[in-house]
C-alpha cells in the first residue's frame, strides 16, 4: 500500500551475492528478478515484469498508470524489463553502425528538462516517450552498468552517458533528419534506455550530483561524443565499461578514468542553462540582418567551404549580413539544391547546420569540433602544419593575407582552408622576418605573433566594399576601357609608395607599359608574375591602393622625406631620426642590429638599414631613399602608435 506521497514501504527481497556483479568473467546473472503489479481504482492494472534487484542496493520503481475506460474488470498493461545490458553484452553505444546523417547545431549547450526517447532504431516504427532528463540519465546508467560498482566507476560512466546524450541534443541529430525525437534507446545508434525500469539509489545519487556536467575536449564547445562499449565481448575505440571497474579498483578517479580512454585533453564542463530544448532556427536572415545568429551562420559556411570550395569564404566573421555573406549563401543554396535567393529561411538554416555538423564531425568520436571563440584570435590548441585543413587554417590565411598588404616580403595567400606549399612559404617568411624558429609550423608562439601583428593592423584593413567588383574577365595586354583605366589609376597611387612600380599614362589602354607595371606589382606582393589582372591581382591592387589612401586620410605623422639619399657618410638630424626609429624597431625585430643614434651614418647604421630592407623585401642597398624612409616610419608608427 502506498502512502500519501504515492510511495510504499521498503520491501526487502532476496538477491544473489554482490561479488557476482563485480566479476567481469562471470556469466551468471548477478541480480534477482521480480514481477511487480500495481492496482489502483480507475486505472488499468499495471504489471512490470523482471524488475532487477541487486544485493545491498535499494531501488525504486516509478510507475505511470493509464486511466481505464471500463467500469468493471479493468484492462491490463504489461511491461517487461529486458536482462541487463552488461549481462547480455548489448551495452555501450553506436556499435558497428554509424548513422549516415548528421545534425544541426544549437547555439549553446543546454541541459534539457525533458528528453524524447524513441524506443527502437530510428527508422523503425516504435513508441516515443518523453521523460525528465534526470530520469533518462538514471535509467540509462541503471541499464548500462551495475549499481554495485565503486563510486568513481559510476561517475565516469555517467559523465560519458550524459555527454553523449547532450551531444545528440546540441547537434540536433535526429530532428535535423525529420524525426520527432531527440535520441533512441538502440545501442546500435545511441545508448540503452528501458521503459519502466527501476532506478538504483547509488546511481540516482551520482546522477543528481553530475546531471548538468559533461565531457568536453579542450578548446571545443560541444559535449564530447563519448563512445563506449562493454569491453568484454564488444570492442570500440572509446571507453570500456568493465575497464572502468578495474581502474576504479586500482584507485583511479572518474576524470582519470576518462582521460585513460579519451586522452589528456578531456575536461569536465558544467552548464546552468537548464531549460526545455529549443529549436535552433532564429527566423529569416537576409541583407541587413545582424547579430549572433548571423555570426554563427557565417562561421558555419566558412567551415563548410573547406569541403565545398565553390562557396566563397566570408571574412571578417562579424555578424553582419552583407553582400559577401549573401554571395556565400547563394552558392551554398545552389550546391545543395535549395531555392537560390540569398535568404536564410528555415530550410537553408537547417541545411547549413546539418552540413556543418557533417563536415566538422561533431557527433563522432573523432570530433574535430567547434572551437570556442576561434575568431577572437585564441591559439587553436594544436600546431598547424603543411597538410592540415580546417577553419583554423582558413583564419591563419586571412591574418597573413592582411599582414601581406603591409609587409611585401610575406607573399599573399589564398583563403581556402588548406595548408599547402603557398601557406608554408608565407609562414616561413613571417618567421624569418620576426626572428622566430623557421620551421613553417604555426605553433603557439608563431600564431600569437601573427595575431598580435594582425590586430595592430586591423583598424587599417579596408572593408571589402571599398574594392570595386571584379569585372568577371581577365584584363591583359590588348584590353581597353574603364576598368583598365581604374587599374592604371590605382597602380599610379601605389607607385608613390613603391617606386619599383612605374608610373603610367591613364589612357584606358592595356599596353606594354601597363603589363610591366602589373608584373612589378605582382612581384612586389607575392602574386603570380604574369602581367595579367585576374581576380586575385584585381582585389590586391585596389586593396593596397585603398590602404595607402586610408593612411594619408588618417593624418598619420610621417616626417617629410629630406629629398636627398641618406647613405654611408651622411650626417644630421634626418640620420639621427632614422637611427632612433631603427633602434626602436629592433626591439621587436631582432634581425635588425641595435645601433647608436648619433646622427652619423656609418657601417653599423648601413648594416641595420640593409637588415630592414631585407626584412621588408625591397632592394637591400643600405641606402635610405624615399621608399625606405617611408617604410621605416610606417613600421615605427604601427609598433608605437
From TrEMBL:
Highest taxon above the source species: Bacteria
Residue ranges of every copy of the Peptidoglycan binding-like domain listed in the record: 290-351, 390-449, 480-541, 571-631
Name this protein carries in UniProt: Peptidoglycan-binding protein
Matches recorded under InterPro entries: LD-transpeptidase_YkuD-like, Peptidoglycan-bd-like, PGBD-like_sf, PGBDSf
Pfam families per UniProt: PG_binding_1
UniProt xrefs under Gene3D superfamilies: PGBD-like superfamily/PGBD (1.10.101.10)
Amino acid at each position: 500500500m502506498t502512502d500519501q506521497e504515492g510511495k510504499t514501504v521498503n520491501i526487502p527481497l532476496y538477491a544473489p551475492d554482490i561479488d557476482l556483479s563485480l566479476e567481469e568473467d562471470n556469466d551468471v546473472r548477478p541480480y534477482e528478478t521480480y514481477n511487480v503489479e500495481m492496482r489502483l481504482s480507475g486505472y488499468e492494472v499495471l504489471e512490470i515484469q523482471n524488475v532487477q534487484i541487486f544485493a545491498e542496493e535499494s531501488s525504486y520503481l516509478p510507475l505511470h498508470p493509464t486511466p481505464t475506460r471500463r467500469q468493471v474488470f479493468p484492462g491490463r498493461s504489461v511491461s517487461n524489463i529486458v536482462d541487463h545490458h552488461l549481462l547480455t553484452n548489448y551495452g555501450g553505444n553506436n556499435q558497428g553502425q554509424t548513422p549516415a546523417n548528421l545534425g544541426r547545431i544549437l547555439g549553446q549547450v543546454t541541459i534539457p528538462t525533458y528528453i524524447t526517447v524513441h524506443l527502437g532504431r530510428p527508422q523503425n516504427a516504435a513508441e516515443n516517450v518523453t521523460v525528465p532528463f534526470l530520469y533518462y540519465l538514471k535509467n540509462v546508467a541503471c541499464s548500462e552498468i551495475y549499481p554495485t560498482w565503486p563510486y568513481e566507476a559510476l561517475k565516469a560512466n555517467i559523465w560519458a552517458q550524459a555527454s553523449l546524450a547532450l551531444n545528440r541534443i546540441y547537434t540536433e541529430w535526429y530532428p535535423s533528419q525529420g524525426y520527432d525525437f531527440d535520441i533512441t534507446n538502440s545501442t546500435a545508434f545511441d545508448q540503452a534506455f528501458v521503459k519502466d525500469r527501476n532506478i538504483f539509489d547509488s546511481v540516482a545519487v551520482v546522477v543528481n550530483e553530475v546531471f548538468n556536467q559533461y565531457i568536453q575536449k579542450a578548446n571545443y564547445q560541444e559535449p564530447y561524443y563519448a563512445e563506449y562499449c562493454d569491453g568484454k565481448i564488444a570492442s570500440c575505440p572509446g571507453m570500456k565499461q568493465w575497464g572502468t571497474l578495474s581502474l576504479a579498483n586500482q584507485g583511479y578517479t572518474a576524470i582519470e578514468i576518462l582521460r585513460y580512454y579519451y586522452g589528456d585533453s578531456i575536461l569536465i564542463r558544467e552548464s546552468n542553462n537548464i531549460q526545455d530544448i529549443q529549436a535552433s532556427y532564429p527566423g529569416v536572415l537576409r541583407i541587413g540582418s545582424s547579430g549572433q545568429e548571423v555570426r554563427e551562420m557565417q562561421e558555419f559556411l566558412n567551415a563548410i567551404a573547406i569541403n565545398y570550395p565553390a562557396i566563397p569564404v566570408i571574412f571578417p566573421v562579424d555578424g553582419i549580413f552583407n553582400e559577401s555573406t549573401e554571395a556565400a549563401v547563394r552558392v551554398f543554396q545552389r550546391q545543395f539544391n535549395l531555392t537560390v535567393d540569398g535568404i536564410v529561411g528555415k530550410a537553408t538554416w537547417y541545411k547549413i547546420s546539418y552540413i556543418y555538423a557533417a563536415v566538422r564531425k561533431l557527433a563522432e568520436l573523432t570530433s574535430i569540433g567547434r572551437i570556442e571563440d576561434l575568431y577572437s584570435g585564441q591559439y587553436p590548441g594544436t600546431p598547424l602544419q603543411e597538410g592540415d585543413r580546417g577553419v583554423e587554417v582558413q583564419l591563419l590565411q586571412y591574418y597573413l593575407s592582411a599582414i601581406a598588404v603591409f609587409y611585401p616580403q610575406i607573399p599573399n595567400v589564398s583563403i581556402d582552408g588548406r595548408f599547402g606549399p603557398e601557406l608554408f612559404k608565407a609562414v616561413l617568411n613571417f618567421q624569418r622576418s620576426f626572428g622566430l624558429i623557421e620551421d613553417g609550423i604555426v605553433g603557439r608562439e608563431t600564431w600569437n605573433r601573427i595575431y598580435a601583428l594582425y590586430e595592430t593592423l586591423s583598424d587599417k584593413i579596408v572593408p571589402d566594399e571599398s574594392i570595386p567588383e571584379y569585372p568577371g574577365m581577365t584584363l591583359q595586354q590588348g584590353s581597353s576601357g574603364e576598368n583598365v583605366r581604374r587599374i592604371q589609376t590605382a597602380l599610379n597611387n601605389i607607385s608613390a609608395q613603391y617606386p619599383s612600380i612605374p608610373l603610367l599614362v591613364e589612357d584606358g589602354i592595356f599596353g606594354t607599359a601597363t603589363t610591366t607595371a602589373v608584373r612589378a606589382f605582382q612581384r612586389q606582393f607575392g602574386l603570380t608574375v604574369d602581367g595579367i589582372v585576374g581576380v586575385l591581382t584585381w582585389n590586391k591592387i585596389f586593396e593596397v591602393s585603398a590602404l595607402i589612401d586610408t593612411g594619408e586620410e588618417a593624418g598619420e605623422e610621417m616626417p617629410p622625406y629630406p629629398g636627398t639619399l641618406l647613405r654611408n657618410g651622411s650626417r644630421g638630424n634626418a640620420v639621427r631620426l632614422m637611427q632612433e626609429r631603427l633602434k626602436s624597431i629592433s626591439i621587436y625585430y631582432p634581425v635588425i642590429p641595435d645601433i647608436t643614434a648619433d646622427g652619423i651614418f656609418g657601417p653599423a647604421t648601413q648594416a641595420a638599414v640593409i637588415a630592414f630592407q631585407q626584412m621588408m623585401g625591397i632592394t637591400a642597398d643600405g641606402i635610405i631613399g624615399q621608399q625606405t624612409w617611408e617604410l621605416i616610419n610606417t613600421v615605427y608608427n604601427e609598433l608605437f602608435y
